[in-house]
UniProtKB/TrEMBL annotation:
GO terms for cellular component: cytoplasm. Residues 27-376 form the Aminotransferase class I/classII large domain. The keyword Protein biosynthesis does not apply. This is Methionine aminotransferase.
Amino acid sequence: MRIDSKLPNVGTNIFTTMGRLANEHNAVNLSQGFPNFGADPKLLQLAADALKGGYNQYAPMQGSVSLRIKISEKIETLYEKTYHPESEITITSGATQAIFTAISTFIRPGDEVIVLKPAYDCYEPAIEVFGGKTIPIQLEGLNYTLNWNTFKSAISSKTKMVIINTPHNPAGTIWNEIDMLQLQEILKDTNIILLSDEVYEHIVFDGKQHESVAKYPELASRSIICSSFGKTFHVTGWKIGYCVAPKALMHEFQKVHQFNVFCVNHPAQEALAKYLETPEHYLTLGQFYQEKRDYFLNAILGSRFKMIPSSGTYFQLLEYSDITNETDTEFAERLIKEYKLASIPVSVFNLDNLDNKQLRFCFAKTNTVLDQAAEILNRI
């Protein structure tokens, strides 16, 4: 049987590769982006209550009504933007499914999609599967800033979508108000759809604020915003996220969504709806992870690595040019095999595998694990 692959150049992703090596060499694993500590017992109890309470059949296709109402209230409180629970919110099987469904809904063969690099690895394969063409733009410098002239010049009559990510994985940067206003001005008077990946919206540090697309009316009117309960509440294995969009965009999104997953885990949705009744559960998340970031960075102050403190997410980039001239993929592999510490090389997310000699470390770990990692980093 001859198979004509729709993704001929896609192999095993970097997370699987580094995770496998970490397991083989019994390494301290700061590579994969999930916490190694448990969820709030209150949330787990709410999930158990929902299971016992009979929420074990299909949820509505759009998602639990009670959860959609709570999401609408949260966004209105935080960003002063109202999304109607009935027609503008959909619960998804994680943010990755929301992103994939958004791309499948709107991208046709020949459409161009602007992707800012480094980019999370789920964007481009989805574009390729549906015949679209990725137009990559490399963010510049070790601070990963966008050259707006380059961005404007990349827009053409074929541009159907732009994908942004803030707070940014893997760079740990965030967009500010000036960035959003600049983007809003450039996209004005176009038919370009904006897909905004905001899964780390509640993990922002140093007194800064998350600039959601929802805060900017002209951007919101053309945008699909994707978020994640898994990232927010330390339950990545639940695979529950959501997206919001204006009615016209969401109507088309739901046409595809209903034939993709139809609906999402019902008892978990009911648990999350009740958990969201206490805003502190997500409003304190930034402080929680900033303490972990600071703990990790303070623990490696004596190392030879260079660092710009992460502004958001639970990832920290460390630059190692004072240590070795190896490529980041080579050094990451040697770190596992010789030092028993796993990270992610950043070049795999960059345009043409641009190598800035940086590795990404996840600090969503217990202090014991962070201490183990710091001890290794300090002796390299």
